[in-house]
Structures are given as C-alpha cells and as structure tokens.
Amino acid sequence: MIKLILSILLIFNLIGNNEPSIYEVRKIYFEKVNTKEGVELLQSTLEKLPNSYKINGYRAGCQMVSSKYQSSPMKKLSVFKEGKQNLELIIKEQPEDMELRLIRLSIQENAPGIVNYNSNIDSDTDLLKNEKNTISDSNLIQHINNYFDGKN
Fold it and tell me: How are the residues of the chain apportioned to helix, strand and coil, as percentages rounded to the nearest 5?
C-alpha cells in the first residue's frame, strides 16, 4: 500500500512539475537574448528555477545582457559589473565547466569596449573547441557548435 501511495505521489509530482529545463534556458539564452523581450523571457524563466551554479551562471549572463536596456549609462555599467562579478565568482568555483565558459565567451565577444571585459576570449575559445568532445550532454555540444558556426 505504501508503495502504491508513493508511486501515485511520484506520478503527480512529475506531471505537475512545470519547472523549465536547462534545455529551455539554453535555447532562450542563445537564441533570444538579443532583444529586450528575450531578456525578460529569460529572466522570468530563471526565476522559476532553484539555485545551482549553472543556473546562477545564466542569471549572471542575463544580468550583463540586460544592462544594455538600462536607462542611464551609470546604471548600465553598475548592472554589467555586478553580473560580471557574479559570473567570475561562479567560474572561479567551477573553472572547468564548459557551459559557464560559453556564457562568458558570448558576453565577452559582445561586450562594449568601455567595460574592458575581453581577457578570456582566447582561453575560453580554445577550451571549448579543444575539449568539447569530453562533454556528454549532446544539447550543450549543439549549442557550442551553433555558437561557433554562427561566427563564421
């Protein structure tokens, strides 16, 4: 009887779980954050997820991207710097995580020169290109390939 009740609870939990997946977060981040509406969609998606270093990495990336939609130059800079500090701290704790490095690369390659955030472009590019075959997540590999294919 207890097994039956636990099975029923598990089924309801799985059915009722409307939490976005990391796949949805990646898709929004890499395909839609080039607009204010895309940034807002990513922010609302990330709010539904519990803290983890990966999700927090996307939050930091989203924060930096959102800085361009701030009203004043000082606000833009402060929002960007806060996101940068958050992302760098997470990468310091997880230096080999390819996804975090892809987030940072995407930010650094698109950051305005005034923020002087470009010192890891070569190392992140090398790591991603040379070590992506060690990744077991095919969805992440596809996003890495798409990122580099889109630059050509």
Answer: 80, 0, 20
137 three-class SS? coil
Please state, in angstroms and rounded to a whole number, the distance separating the CA atoms of residues 65 and 108: 11
∠ CA(64), CA(127), CA(80), 5° rounding? 10
44-84 residue pLDDT tens: 999 999 999 999 999 999 999 999 999 999 999 999 999 99
Are residues 53 and 93 in contact, defined by beta-carbon separation less than 8 angstroms?
A: yes
Question: What are the structural domain ranges in the chain?
Answer: 17-145
Predicted TM-score of the model (pTM): 0.86
Q: What is the largest CA-CA distance in the chain?
A: 65
Q: 């009740």: which residue's tokens?
A: 5
How many CB atoms are located within 10 Å of the residue 3 CB? 7
Contact 29, 61 (CB under 8 A): yes
CA–CA dist 99, 92 (Å, integer): 13
